Amino acid sequence: MINWGVIGAGGIAYRRTIPEGIIKAKNANLIGITDIDSAASEKIGKEFSVTTYKNIDELLKDEKIDAVYIATPIYLHHEQTIRAARNKKNILCEKVMALDQKQCYEMLKACDENKVKFAVGFMMRFNAAHIKIKEIVKNGKLGKIVMARAQLSCWYPQTEGAWRQKKKLSMGGTLTDMGAHCLDILEYIMGTNITDVSCFTGNIVHDYEVEDSSLVTARFGNGAFGVIDNYFNIPDLTSKNILEIYGSKGSVLCRGTIGQESSGTCEIYLEDKEAGYSPDQKRKDIIKKEILDIHYENIYEKEIEYFSDCIEKNIQPRELSGSIGLHNIKIIEACYDSANTSRQKKVL
Asked: Which residues contact 259 (CB under 8 A, 6 or more apart)?
């Protein structure tokens, strides 16, 4: 059993990761929490019947805690990860990992020097639909993959004090906040990294420092193309958060699997037999459509169980590794570079 402490207990920690993940995971035990908002911290501590620490130092000095979940704003990840590592705590850090590559390298160095495990919170990798689609792609059921798309949107208006709307605190807007997940889940499913990107960003509806819209076109290591589009200006219930994978033998279309829910719907379309070129593009008789039968499990619960298991067995969390988080930052930086220069960029 791994004993957990939470740094930054409001936001996603309070809504999702604590109640759906740490509390429910079979190999995790919530010891205590801390948050910069002392009133919120006290409230959350009482709700979950755990210790409320006055500050991070107090939490990190508690020898009962084996692992910490860092769910603070991005600009705090670097400092807090290094402090946690020096206190010999294993770390699950929310995405994105940090504000730039330099910070990422320093975080990984601190974890390596202190012999603690580090993981990045790409919880969408644990959506059962994504796991199944990855296997379908790997087995060649769709043939040679040609194109993949991931889309995630929400309505996020100008908000007083919102750190996500300040560039120095967040690195960027839609691309950083939601695109990071979309970029990662496509690489996870495709089984290959993005090598080149071209990107547009802009403020189409909301007038704040960071972009409210981003569109990335990408090339994967296997030659396939990708599209990643994210928006802060589409009402939540009107956006379907689409995932599409197209290959030479078929395609998969999902709605709602990208996001914080542990659900969604997926359809697979396969050609029963090769019929050659069809000028009128009407070959309904050889197309097989199937609703994928998926047994969904909570993505936050599975994420916490996975990392806790890695700690217990003393193995590296390869599915959520720091190198994945660093690579994700490299892609995002290349995307912003492309948007600023109107040029295609390599992911170095």
From this structure: 124, 152, 241
Assign 279 a pLDDT band (cuts: 50, 70, 90).
Answer: low
Instruction: Examine the domain organization and report whether 198 and 336 are in the same domain.
Output: yes
- State whether 89 and 34 are in the same domain: yes
Query: Does one domain contain both 179 and 118?
Result: no
Give mean pLDDT, residues 272-291: 69
What are residue 118's DSSP bridge partners?
A: 91
CA angle 305, 306, 310 (to 5 degrees): 115
Of 227, 254, 226, the closest CA to residue 241 belongs to 254
Residue 318: both structure tokens together: 């390869």
SS3 category, 34: strand
What's the pLDDT score for residue 287? 74
Burial class (CB in 10 A: 0-12, 13-18, 19+), 278: exposed
Phi, psi (rounded to 5 degrees) for 328: -60, -40
Query: How many Å apart are CA 194 and CA 47, to the nearest integer?
Result: 43
Q: Which helix (DSSP H) or strand (DSSP E) does residue 36 occupy?
A: none
Domain of 169, in residue numbers: 124-299+330-341
